[in-house]
Write a structure and sequence with these properties.
40% of the residues lie in helices and 22% in strands. By secondary structure, the protein is of the alpha/beta class. InterPro entries: Cyclic-di-GMP_PDE-like (IPR050706), EAL_dom (IPR001633), EAL_sf (IPR035919), PAS (IPR000014), PAS-like_dom_sf (IPR035965), PAS_fold_3 (IPR013655), Rev_trsase/Diguanyl_cyclase (IPR043128).
């Protein structure tokens, strides 16, 4: 658009105040360009005085349409008929607007009906509401909507809506529009990215405590990365109370002791050395050539042992001295032994040091696979035959009834001093060497024995690892144990961990079907962490779903977790499935779960695990037996 076009446009009608302001801005820009051209010596072929000639009387709709045409915009004009009724009015559109709607000019006669058909069905009411508001208020407006072009493609159109007047009275509406598909899609993408960034949260399973030891998973990642790239040594330190305390240590005591040990270990080896809690009472230290200590790894191990032995640890009102031994295994770059293998070798070396009465046992290379497997199997079989286990129970809170109605039975593995400890590292080892079934049978038999001796009116969840589902005799074993211990089947709910069903789908379905046939219920644990979570709800006769604790532990501070939990509750209730939440730790989380209509809650807020005591006068409400399958792991643990 040059100066002549602007002047010609300005002469075609009486502008509104807004158009006058726009014309003055364009005129000033033209005047500035004109002055610069003169100053630079350009020859002006056509000269004219810049005045405001907007005085001619021209139809307002024509004037706006002409302006839109000059700026490559399209227009739709509705002229009201008698009584200002839309039905008696007339619709027309410009060639440019026809092209925006995907119609060649002159091929479609525009009517209110055809216009509605061209607009996306989801946006029809939005367009009608915008037009009605502009007409009723007699003031400009705007609207963005989608149109469906021939062939089904969808485009986004942005329209400015203005009221036409005749003799000072409203006589119609004109919409000046443009195709803003690219702009609208870019805006939607920015909004999506903003929402995604707000919702994205860290993986709690991989999160380490700042300044504290790494988790087992993170530490094994470090070890595997090191063995692929360099030589090094892995040190495992066993630190256990020298005597069993008169009173069993609580979970808070164990947490306090672990924090003190981690701080002392960090002081002994330095801040730049990777350390991790690899099992209850077992600490790993990775030494590589980048650390000065590597030249004398035996000296490092002996210094750590001596530091631990000479220190008194405060646990509540008591002080404890830790018996400490260490195992050290060297590895070369590219070693075939995995991080898990190295951890097992170093742990066995530490236990050999204890039996031999020496501070440290050093292995110059990893143990042969056959020897390692045989030793692990012997450890598991000995623990089962010697009953080196204990059963604890943790309450589960019914949010609707506002009381504890269930308990989960948790397995503990006793240390050399008889102190019960969480079994996660032990069960991992038992599963890897194919000895988990014997542990599972011990748990089932002893749990059902306790249940049979009680009132059989409380839910108890018994943890069993997932590899057992592949055993075709599991269902018969459980059925026989129920009969032998005289446990009521309708008081039992077997719980299957959702993350392990991929490899055992056929066996899981057979077990689920069989256990339901004898009168027990079925639950799905750790829901949301597997690869086929929703598919499991279609073919498994599930009565209860337990949402994995990783979605609950940070629930009140994570919009992503809130969205996931709300969706899962709605889905499960629609399918007739009850919902439980794990790892509940505070009242704030309980209130959010109530709002989401979650049925059950479990965690430190409901109560910490306690040793099971079944007395003749004890009353419990019902029994729940949980079949827990471990989450899938990589070869590094």
């Amino acid at each position: 658009m040059d100066l002549d076009d602007i002047l010609a446009l300005a002469e075609t009608g009486r502008p509104s105040p807004l158009e006058r302001a726009r014309a003055r801005r364009v005129a000033r820009a033209a005047q500035s360009q004109y002055d610069r051209s003169l100053a630079e010596g350009y020859e002006i072929l056509v000269d004219t005085d810049l005045v405001d000639p907007l005085t001619a009387e021209v139809d307002e709709a024509i004037r706006i349409a002409r302006a839109a045409q000059l700026t490559k915009l399209g227009t739709i004009t509705w002229t009201a008929g008698a009584g200002r009724a839309a039905a008696s009015g007339r619709l027309s559109w410009s060639d440019e607007m026809s092209m925006i709607f995907g119609r060649p000019p002159g091929t479609l006669r525009l009517t209110p009906e055809t216009l509605v058909e061209l607009v996306h069905p989801a946006d029809v009411q939005t367009v009608r509401a915008a037009v009605a508001a502009v007409w009723a208020d007699e003031c400009p407006g705007e609207v963005v909507f989608r149109v469906i072009q021939p062939g089904g493609s969808v485009r986004h159109v942005h329209c400015h809506l203005e009221v036409l007047t005749t003799a000072g009275r409203p006589s119609g509406i004109i919409a000046t529009g443009e195709d803003v598909t690219a702009v609208e899609l870019a805006r939607q993408e920015r909004r999506r990215l903003t929402t995604r960034n707000q919702m994205l949260c860290a993986d709690l399973a991989l999160r380490d405590v700042p300044g504290g030891p790494q988790t087992r998973g993170n530490f094994t990642d470090e070890v595997d990365r090191a063995r692929r790239t360099t030589d090094g040594a892995l040190l495992v330190v066993v630190a256990e109370p020298t005597t069993r305390p008169p009173d069993a240590l609580s979970d808070e005591d164990h947490d306090q002791l672990a924090a003190a040990v981690a701080q002392l270990l960090r002081t002994a080896v330095g801040d730049d050395v990777a350390c991790g809690l690899v099992a209850p009472g077992l600490w790993g230290v990775l030494l590589t050539p980048s650390h000065e200590q590597t030249a004398a790894v035996e000296a490092v191990a002996e210094r750590v042992v001596e530091t631990f032995r000479s220190n008194l640890f405060g646990v509540g009102p008591r002080t404890l001295r830790l018996g400490t031994w260490a195992g050290l295994v060297r590895f070369e770059k590219g070693a075939s032994a995995t991080a898990f293998d190295l951890l097992i070798d170093a742990e066995h070396a530490a236990r050999d040091a204890r039996r031999a009465g020496v501070p440290v046992v050093v292995l110059d290379q990893p143990v042969r696979d056959e020897d390692r497997t045989d030793r692990c199997r012997s450890r598991v079989r000995y623990a089962v035959s010697a009953n080196r286990f204990a059963l604890f129970a943790q309450p589960i809170f019914d949010l609707a009834r506002n009381e504890v109605t269930r308990h989960e039975i948790l397995l503990r593995v006793r240390s050399e001093t008889g102190e019960p400890a969480p079994p996660w590292a032990f069960l991992d080892m038992a599963e890897r060497v194919g000895e988990i079934l014997s542990v599972d049978k011990w748990v089932v038999d002893h749990a059902l024995e306790l249940i049979g001796r009680g009132a059989q009116t409380s839910h108890y969840q018994v943890n069993i690892s997932g590899r057992s589902l592949a055993d075709p005799g599991l269902l018969d074993y459980v059925t026989e144990a129920i009969r032998r211990h005289r446990v009521k089947p309708d008081c039992l709910t077997f719980e299957i961990t959702e993350t392990a069903l991929i490899e055992n789908r056929k066996e899981a379905l057979a077990f689920a079907t069989g256990i339901r046939e004898i009168g027990c219920h079925l639950a799905l644990d750790d829901f949301g962490t597997g690869y086929d979570a929703l598919a499991h709800l279609r073919y498994l006769p599930v009565d209860l779903v337990k949402i994995d604790g990783t979605f609950v532990v940070d629930l009140c501070r994570s919009p992503a977790d809130q969205a996931i939990v709300s969706m899962l509750v709605t889905l499960c209730h629609t399918l007739g499935i009850r919902v439980a939440a794990e790892h509940v730790q505070d009242e704030e989380t309980i209130e959010f779960l109530r709002k989401c209509a979650v049925d059950l809650a479990q965690g430190y807020w409901t109560g910490r695990p306690e040793p099971i005591v079944v007395g003749p006068d004890q009353r419990v409400d019902s029994i729940e037996l949980e079949l827990r399958l471990p989450s899938p792991r990589t070869a590094i643990g």
